[in-house]
Design brief:
Strand order of the largest sheet: 1-8-7-2-4
Number of domains: 2
Largest sheet: 5 strands, parallel
Distance between the termini: 77 Å
Structural class: alpha/beta
CATH topology of the largest domain: Oxidized Rhodanese, domain 1
Strand content: 15-25%
CATH class of the largest domain: Alpha Beta
Order of helices and strands: HEHEHEEEEHEHEHE
Radius of gyration: 20 Å
Number of strands: 9
CATH architecture of the largest domain: 3-Layer(aba) Sandwich
CATH superfamily of the largest domain: Rhodanese-like domain
């Protein structure tokens, strides 16, 4: 009887392990991403994958945060970033009443800024480039623009820095699901001025 109980326990543990593996694989099924997070290049990473990739490929990879300077200033930055190049800026001269926030203004120099970063770092448009925004929407748009301009190996961090919003429960509407910070990846409030974006 003891042996039967042991076998049942082992089988139960194996089943639990396989359920975790199945959940992890489902998370990697990028075809199920919302359309606004999909890119023309089809290159995606979650936060853990991005961190591991950068740590193993520092010599031929660039990690660029594309959030606004305000977001980085108040919410912190990843410790492995190579630069902050905003996709948009907050425009305090107007208000978006539908989204309950200040308007945003596109960074018209985004591609030129990225080209300049590649040149400075001695990289090409075929080297790996990882983009991260707040939740994965802006980085997908940025990947598409870079692809139109000859970049071939650009990944988006699909859940961004803060992650997705909880759909129910006591934290409904808060960005507590996935993302860089929620995944326990390294970040800091102490910003490196050499990596920040300064407007001229």
């Amino acid at each position: 009887m003891k042996y039967i109980k042991k076998i049942i326990q082992i089988v139960a543990l194996i089943a639990v392990a396989f359920s975790f593996i199945g959940a992890a694989q489902a998370e990697q099924d990028w075809s199920k991403l919302p359309e606004k997070k999909q890119t023309t290049l089809g290159l995606y990473m979650d936060s853990t994958m991005a961190y591991d990739y950068v740590m193993k490929n520092m010599d031929n990879t660039l990690f660029v945060d594309i959030r606004t300077p305000s977001e980085v200033n108040y919410l912190g930055a990843v410790t492995v970033m190579d630069a902050l190049i905003p996709w948009v800026f907050m425009d305090s001269s107007g208000w978006n009443s539908k989204k309950h926030r200040y308007n945003r203004r596109t960074n018209d120099n985004f591609v030129a800024d990225m080209d300049a970063l590649l040149k400075k770092k001695g990289r090409t448009k075929d080297d790996a480039l990882i983009l991260m925004c707040r939740s994965g929407d802006r980085s997908a748009l940025a990947v598409n623009l870079l692809a139109e301009n000859g970049y071939t190996n650009v990944y988006t961090v699909v859940h961004g820095y803060e992650g997705d919003k909880a759909k129910d429960g006591p934290k409904k509407g808060q960005r507590v699901v996935n993302g860089w910070k929620n995944s326990g990846m390294p970040w800091t409030y102490t910003l490196d001025g050499d990596l920040m974006y300064l407007t001229k």
